[in-house]
Amino acid sequence: MHLFEKLFKGQAQELTVSVHLNARYQPIDRGAYEDLTERFLQERGWGRLGTGGGTRMAPEGYPAACDFDIVVARAHLDDVCAALDKAFYVPKGSRLIIGKRERPIGQQEGLALYLNGTELPETVYRTSDVNAVIKGLEAHLGEARGRFLSFWMGPKETALYFYGPSYAEMKAALEEIIPRYPLCDKCRMEQIA
Are 103 and 80 in contact (CB under 8 A)? Predict the structure, then answer.
């Protein structure tokens, strides 16, 4: 008998599980991952999306983390936990909350690339397309090293959020290519998961 089966033996056949993602996803991006998770659960007959969810904002205004609920068949709780632990969109520092118990999940690391929004020549802002920059950076990373998954536009910087197996590998790969993009002048990188 698995750990969670022992804890909840003799109780209801379904559990509501809160998924806390240590991810800087905008609400629309969180919604996409809720949909992805629901499809994954339903295809396997393991559960469905619950009714709760939200994005936690940091005092500075950027998305700091997000949460959503799933309803899981008790018999598949360990399967769901194992699958979410390895999922490409679940960063380190994430967790499942089941009643008063928590289980850490997530193996992905996060990188925030902050584009300087105030100190570059005006022509750079006028002639650069941030979407083309994102597409070029993501293509250079390659899906195996990392993916662009969300962003935040602040008063002085725009943050591009990438997630992948290794922060160090993503950083090294991005350092190779950012000199090609004037919009990346004076940018900075930070590990976020």
Answer: no
Can 3-105 and 109-191 be said to share one CATH topology?
yes
Distance CA 172, CA 51 (A): 40
- The pTM of the full predicted model, rounded to 2 decimals, is 0.89
Backbone φ and ψ for 124, nearest 5 degrees, come out as: -65, -45
As a whole number, mean pLDDT of residues 65-76 equals 95
Residue range 109-191 in CATH 3.30.70.1280: yes
Strand order across the beta sheet in which 188-191 lies: 147-153, 157-164, 109-116, 188-191
CA distances from residue 173 to 68, 110, 149 in whole angstroms, order as listed: 32, 14, 17
pLDDT tens digits along 13-24: 999 999 999 999
3-state secondary structure labels for all residues of 66-114:
EEEEEEEEHHHHHHHHHHHHHCCCCECCEEEEECCEEEEECCEEEEEEE
Fold type of domain 3-105: Alpha-Beta Plaits (3.30.70)
Domain segments of the chain: what residues? 3-105, 109-191
Of 47, 101, 102, the C-alpha closest to 73 is 47
Nearest to 63 by CA among 153, 155, 170, 187: 153
